Amino acid sequence: MATSPHKKASRKSASTEDVELWFFLKMGSAQAFTRLYNLYFEDLCRYGNRITNDKELIEDCLQDLFVEIWKGRGNLPTVHTVRYYLYKRLKRKIIKKLVDRRKLPMVNNMLEEYNFTIVFSKESELISQQFCEDQQGELLNALNSLTRRQKEAITLRFYDGLTNQEVAGLLSMDTKSVRNLIYRAMLTLRKEMLKFALLLCAVLIF
Questions:
Q1: Which of 46, 121, 143, 148 has the most CB atoms in a 10 Å sphere around its CB?
Q2: DSSP H or E run through 126
């Protein structure tokens, strides 16, 4: 079955529009702000849900993020990848709230303390089209058997389409380490379930 044209169109739209929209947002355009909000809100929700299942916390962080972006629009940096910028700011907010709620100090890179779970949402059309329900369960178990960093690197690189350099920025690693991390993750998947690992590569890489 062919890949959803809507999904392809959505990704293409985000990649071609967002930098221009970001420019107009910096110039004070409420229309550009609304368009960016609509363009990324669902993806940001899914990204947040990989870090924590506390939906209220995610919603609070998203609201704070977009309020801060609008209020500080005149001082926003020039960015080359809006998705990366939004992911990075959202991640920092979620981690800070998680740390605050646990009353833990932010030392020695507390980012290591959060969990990262891969889920197949209803929007994961590529997965549902390629695998039956039982196979999806096996694949999901295999993916979530990886280390937290491996899971995050794979989803950011292949599902969200970030570059290795951007993944490195989100994981506080260097680019070479990210490449090695993904390579080791794919080796693990291949040992666990060869056919699913190969299919996953074919399905996720774009």
A1: 143
A2: helix 125-130
pLDDT reading at 159 higher than 60: yes
Residue 131 pLDDT class (50, 70, 90 cuts): low
| DSSP annotation string for 56-77 | HHHHHHHHHHHHHHHHTGGGPP
Phi, psi of 2 (to 5 degrees): -75, 155
Size of the chain, expressed as the number of residues it contains = 206
Domain ranges of the chain: 5-113, 125-204
Q: In this structure, what DSSP letter does residue 27 have?
A: T
CB within 8 A of 187, min separation 6: which ones?
none
The closest of 144, 155, 142 to 182, measured between CA atoms, is 155
Q: Give the span between the Cα atoms of 135 and 21, in whole angstroms.
A: 40
Q: Which of 18, 42, 96, 107 is nearest to 64 (CA)?
A: 96
Q: And the tokens for 179?
A: 């490449």
pLDDT single digits (tens) 70-115: 999 999 999 989 999 999 999 999 988 888 877 445 555 444 455 6
Buried b (16+ CB within 10 A) or exposed e, 155-175: bbbbbbbbebebbbbbbebee
CATH code reported for the domain at 5-113: 1.10.1740
The mean pLDDT value for 134-147 works out to 70
pTM of the model: 0.74
